[in-house]
Amino acid sequence: MVPANLQTPQGSQKWRSQRYSASIHRQGLCRDIEISLCHILFRHHPHHRIPLYNARQIGMLDCASSCSMFVYLSISQSMRGSAMKSHVALCRHCNSKLEICLADLGLMPIANDLPDTQNIPERLTPLKVMVCSQCRLAQTVDYKNPDEIFRDDYVYFSSESTSWLEHARRYVDAMIARFDLTPGSRHIEIASNDGYLLQFSKAHGLSALGVEPCGSVADAARAKGIETWQDFFGAELADRIVSSGGPADLVTANNVFAHIPDVNGFASGIRKILKPEGVATIEVQHLLRLMQRNQFDTMYHEHFSYHSLIAASRIFRAAGLRVFDVEELESHGGSIRFFVCRDDADHPISANVDRILQEELDHGLDGDDVYLRFAGQIETLKGHLVDLVTGIRAEGKRIVAYGAPAKGVTLLNYCGIGADMIDFTVDRAPSKQGKFLPGVDIPILHPSAIAESDADFIMILPWNLSDEIIAQVVSASAYRGGFIVPMPTPHVVHALTRQAA
Ligand SMILES: [Zn+2]
């Protein structure tokens, strides 16, 4: 029911309603979910933070009068329950029934599926992350097949990030030194993207093989002369790799473990492609840091699981592997690199393993409560960010954004910050320019647009690169306004002082 004093401008509600109903209908969810456009709230209304169970903003309307309006999509709790039952919610690792909800972000567009035009119906899919009470693996509830998410026109090219390239170069140097790799040593990378990392191995004379499911980036790697198999990694592919070129001295899996739904098949594949004393390093975002630093925006459909050492050790052990060292990294807001070998290999266990394990236990990651509290952390952050943005806009100032990462799509959609708040975003990747952030319809432009705009604030969506981006913008343009950094708590950094305010 729309309260009588909060009626929408004529025609607008109908248009939005048809648009989203069509989207839901195409996904076959219309049987399960009752959708009602039930709340239209003035932006300045003090209760605009969605009082309903899991209500989610789905669009913004320009009011005929001076204020803007929100429209919310609400899914009734009872009907939502029936929708969930129609999907399997069993643990990807141990098959236990999933009962602990870490985050329910409602209906979300596929984050890397950037539309070419504004106002087209998005493919909205529920985004819910659960934690297994048995093995403690945090994971999304399945609604899609991976091949619906990772498509040939996947737009993320690793080589487009300068700091990530440097990270890759340092990694290769460190592994060669630590594990005495020599020219001819076999190095396999899983999710090798555009060859951003294997190019450094190749330069050292290692025998490099990439595995990459996305055609566009696999082609880019081949163009650099790096042998690349276009496929999803798992136990079956591991057999073929070993038959074709033998097992590996070094296996690298950076930011891919989370992207593979079959965690057991992935671990078993790693076991198969390792030489008896071979080493695999598996880098993922660390669930401990994600939770401590409120990084719910790193949850999106492409991330099927979120790893702690507690959960990952169980998965590797079940596949005949063991974690003999771990390193903490600042990449992606706090990552962990597992060093894994066959369980019968000689690699001595590092003290880092016990240290991180103890830190996770101290934080409660082997219990239920810490996970159940996370939803409250997310809501608090959302409230702060919405207050900050609406406050700036109320003063008549303009906001643009920097970057078009998947995490920005989750953040803006969940917080309901759209094109009427943020004029545009910019991204260095030519593959993203000219497109739009899905769900919020914010255009993605070339970075030069910042210099030509009269923006007062820039919201940095890839906040993990905020230092690099602020330095870049300040040196490349006359922009001297503020930067909004949304994580770990929303704050403003001023260009001139680069001091947090
Ligand atoms: Zn489990």
Give a brief rundown of this model:
This protein is an alpha/beta fold and 501 residues long. 32% of the residues lie in helices and 24% in strands. The chain folds into 3 domains: 1-84, no CATH class; 158-372, Vaccinia Virus protein VP39 (Rossmann fold), CATH 3.40.50; 376-494, 3-Layer(aba) Sandwich (Rossmann fold).
CATH topology of the largest domain, by name, is: Rossmann fold
What does the largest sheet look like? 7 strands, mixed
**What is the overall number of helices?**
16
Rg from Cα: 23 Å
Molecular shape: globular
InterPro entries: Methyltransf_Zn-bd_dom_put, Methyltransf_Zn-bd_dom_put_sf, MeTrfase_14, SAM-dependent_MTases_sf
Pfam family, one: Methyltransf_23
Enzyme class: transferase
EC number: 2.1.1.-
Q: Would you write up a description of this structure?
A:
This protein has 501 residues and is an alpha/beta fold. The chain folds into 3 domains: 1-84, no CATH class; 158-372, Rossmann fold; 376-494, NAD(P)-binding Rossmann-like Domain (Rossmann fold, 3-Layer(aba) Sandwich). Helices cover 32% and strands 24% of the residues. The chain is built from 16 helices and 21 strands. The strands form 4 sheets. A 7-stranded mixed sheet has the order 9-8-7-10-11-14-13, sandwiched between helices. A 7-stranded mixed sheet has the order 17-18-16-15-19-20-21, sandwiched between helices. Helix 8 links the parallel strand 10 (248-254) and strand 11 (274-285). The longest helix has 21 residues, at 374-394. It is globular and about 65 Å long. The two termini are 42 Å apart. Bound molecules: zinc ion (ZN). Residues 91, 93-94, 96, 132, 134-135, 137 line the site of zinc ion.
